[in-house]
């Protein structure tokens, strides 16, 4: 997937189109994945020698792994605190400030992905009772007291002296060498009972319950040691490269598991291929708006984990990944891993064996912050009447109609004729690809002057209206009802924020109740019944000609001739069967005339 294919600009306004109940279902895009595509596009050359990269990755992992002293210190402290909390679950004794239901280890200590220099473990305590601030403080004092009692027989050095610190998530118990975060939550059914003034924050409580689900999933699915190695390397990248810092530990866990295990063989990829694949996925837009991303396996539905990132963060992540992927391709892995150089390679131009790698520029532009109500005021200013009593946006739409190709409609005694100019800008144009005279139902046709894209959307909606009516009432929709519904849709877009009026006028003809009909719909949503009319470029000349030539006793064939003659009044160049379209509607229904039939009519016109 090319960068920018699913990265959108956030400052784009809405335009004419259909909203509300016409909203399309979200269809996620899957970014290009070289590993999955290899089945269809097999490698044609030998795989590159990545032994140096593999060695560098393993060396960096060794450097990032906790030392033996760190592991001993954190393991001892976790064991003591876990033992005390387990005893409070089974035998609380005289401690009745709160009741404990379960104690679970979570986070990097439990998963085995800790990084040296950050000797912190997480333990989640689930309370049966509601988590008040007083209960949290009492529990912290009780745990610290019981841990100290277990250490009475030990030789306590200054490094082993415990201290407790309360915070909005629970409390920390730490010494000089390690820290255990005790995270407080409650049973899921208690979450809705929490009150902001009395209890701990409900969102924080839910995040602690989610951490337990994450830990269980990781324990069941992330067995391979390479996954833990890759997670440790990714955590280091997030620490050193600013664009990756918003990626949460849970996102990194899923990304590492996806990169290593999600492949056709279902076998763990080597660490060098998995490391390279992470950058390929991020650079291809894995975490961009509209991407399938990675679904959270611990939540109901298809919640994509990257949606927790802002649009700027998603864009920056993709941007940096693309730059670093090019650096990696030219052998700059030591700079990426932090073994050499610094992180400026993601922000500044660098040269690798004569190849210049320039940082990719951001695509997403954050809209300027506006004061409250400013957008509404701006939109209402556009939709408000001016001193002359006209709506500016509708005037713009009518100007688009006046500049559009001329169209003519004439109602005869036994049918209706629609015609329009349809010049092609090039001889290479496929004249069958897009038509201006369109069939809406078997007995209804439509033509336009103005903006083609708006017309095609209205054609689509008019057809839906006709089909829905038939499915409901088992009879064709009356012409007047269809015109009224189309006009209502057009009128909605003259008074809604974030959209503009449709830049087209429509001629709608049909046969209903044994007689023909001809209507014109304007961008304002107004509609009129006509015997004959012209619109678009040089419409005044066309209407003047019709006033002279029209009579109500016209037969359909004569009406076709009159329609073509009316087009000639304002036609620039020579009129031929290839640069006009004609449609007729009679008791047999609506149909567009083919080129040979139009030629026959033209042959009879002097």
TrEMBL record:
A cellular component term, taken from the record's GO annotations: catalytic step 2 spliceosome
Naturally occurring in which organism (per UniProt): Pseudolycoriella hygida
Alphabetical list of InterPro entries matching this protein: DZF_dom, DZF_dom_C, DZF_dom_N, ILF2, NT_sf, Ntn_hydrolases_N, Proteasome_alpha-type, Proteasome_sua/b
Single GO term (MF): DNA binding
Stated name of the protein: Proteasome subunit alpha type-2
Keyword DNA-binding: yes
This protein's record includes keyword Metal-binding: no
SMART domains: DZF
Localization annotation: Cytoplasm; Nucleus
Main localization (coarse): cytoplasm
UniProt function note: The proteasome is a multicatalytic proteinase complex which is characterized by its ability to cleave peptides with Arg, Phe, Tyr, Leu, and Glu adjacent to the leaving group at neutral or slightly basic pH. The proteasome has an ATP-dependent proteolytic activity.
């Amino acid at each position: 997937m090319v960068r920018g294919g699913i990265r959108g600009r956030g400052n784009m306004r809405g335009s004419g189109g259909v909203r509300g109940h016409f909203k399309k279902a979200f269809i996620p895009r899957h970014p290009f994945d070289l590993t999955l595509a290899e089945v269809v596009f097999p490698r044609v050359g030998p795989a590159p020698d990545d032994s140096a990269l593999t060695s560098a990755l393993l060396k960096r992992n060794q450097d990032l792994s906790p030392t033996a002293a760190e592991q001993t210190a954190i393991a001892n402290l976790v064991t003591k605190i876990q033992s005390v909390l387990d005893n409070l679950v089974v035998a609380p004794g005289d401690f009745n400030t709160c009741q404990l239901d379960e104690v679970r280890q979570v986070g990097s200590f439990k998963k085995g992905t800790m990084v040296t220099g950050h000797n912190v473990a997480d333990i989640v305590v689930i309370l049966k009772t509601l988590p008040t601030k007083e209960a949290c403080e009492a529990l912290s004092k009780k745990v610290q007291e019981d841990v100290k009692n277990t250490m009475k027989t030990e030789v306590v050095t200054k490094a082993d002296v415990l201290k407790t610190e309360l915070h909005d998530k629970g409390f920390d118990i730490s010494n000089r060498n390690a820290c255990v975060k005790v995270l407080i939550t409650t049973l899921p059914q208690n979450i809705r009972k929490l009150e902001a003034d009395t209890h701990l924050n409900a969102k924080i409580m839910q995040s602690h319950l989610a951490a337990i689900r994450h830990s269980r999933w990781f324990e069941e699915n992330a067995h391979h040691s390479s996954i833990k190695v890759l997670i440790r390397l990714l955590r280091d990248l997030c620490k050193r490269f600013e664009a990756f810092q918003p990626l949460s530990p849970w996102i990194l866990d899923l990304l590492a598991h996806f990169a290593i295990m999600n492949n056709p063989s279902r076998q763990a990829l080597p660490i060098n291929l998995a490391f390279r694949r992470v950058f390929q996925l991020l650079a291809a837009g894995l975490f961009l708006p509209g991407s399938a991303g990675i679904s959270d396996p611990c939540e109901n539905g298809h919640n994509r984990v990257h949606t927790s990132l802002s649009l700027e963060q998603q864009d920056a992540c993709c941007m940096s990944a693309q730059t670093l992927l090019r650096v990696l391709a030219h052998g700059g892995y030591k700079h990426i891993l932090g073994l050499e150089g610094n992180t400026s390679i993601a922000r500044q131009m660098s040269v690798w064996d004569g190849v210049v790698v320039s940082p990719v520029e951001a695509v997403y532009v954050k809209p300027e912050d506006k004061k409250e109500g400013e957008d509404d005021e701006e939109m209402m200013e556009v939709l408000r009447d001016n001193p002359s009593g006209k709506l500016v946006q509708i005037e713009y739409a009518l100007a688009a109609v006046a500049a559009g190709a001329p169209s003519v409609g004439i109602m005869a005694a036994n049918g209706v004729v629609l015609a329009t100019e349809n010049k092609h800008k090039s001889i290479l144009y496929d004249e069958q690809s897009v038509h201006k005279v369109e069939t809406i139902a078997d007995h209804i046709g439509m033509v336009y002057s103005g903006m083609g894209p708006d017309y095609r959307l209205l054609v689509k909606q008019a057809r839906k209206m006709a089909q829905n009516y038939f499915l409901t009432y088992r009879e064709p929709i009356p012409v007047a009802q269809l015109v009224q519904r189309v006009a209502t849709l057009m009128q909605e877009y003259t008074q809604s924020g974030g959209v503009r009026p449709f830049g087209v006028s429509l001629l709608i003809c049909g046969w209903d109740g044994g007689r023909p009909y001809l209507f014109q719909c304007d961008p304002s949503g107004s509609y009129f019944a006509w015997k004959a009319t012209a619109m678009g470029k040089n419409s005044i000349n066309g209407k003047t000609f019709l006033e002279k030539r029209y009579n109500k006793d016209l037969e359909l064939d004569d009406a076709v001739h009159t329609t073509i003659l009316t087009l000639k009044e304002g036609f620039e160049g020579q009129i031929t069967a290839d640069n006009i379209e004609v449609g007729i509607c009679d008791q047999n229904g609506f149909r567009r005339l083919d080129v040979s039939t139009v030629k026959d009519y033209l042959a009879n016109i002097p």
